[in-house]
Write a structure and sequence with these properties.
Shape: globular
Largest sheet: none
Number of domains: 1
Number of helices: 5
């Protein structure tokens, strides 16, 4: 099982990847990470009844693999979250046509 500290590091790594690879600078997400750390940020975003802005942006960029939802479903981090939180993450990714890693389930022509 991963630790909350390592999960926070993984969240920062996804933030950096989105910025470097996509030019997406998620400033509110970064503030949340600094204030609440990784698990607290993930829980707050999953508790929202609507998709958070970062999820929406990553969806548009076809990179839900960098989403909080995909990260919490990673086997290393699952034990840090409640079953209900994992269900929310799983359902959001399924609604987007993705598997638990955030990769599209749609076949490519």
């Amino acid at each position: 099982m991963g630790t909350p500290e390592k999960f926070t590091e993984a969240m920062f790594a996804n933030y950096r990847a989105a910025k470097a690879e996509l030019g997406y600078n998620a400033t509110y997400f970064l503030k949340m990470l600094n204030d609440r750390k990784g698990v607290g940020t993930a829980r707050a975003l999953l508790a929202s009844p609507r998709h958070h802005d970062g999820y929406t942006e990553l969806y548009k960029l076809q990179r839900l693999d960098l989403s909080v939802e995909a990260l919490v479903l990673n086997e290393e981090w699952r034990d840090l979250f409640l079953p209900e939180e994992l269900d929310i993450a799983r359902n959001r990714l399924r609604e987007a046509g993705c598997d638990e890693t955030g990769r599209s389930l749609k076949s490519k022509p």
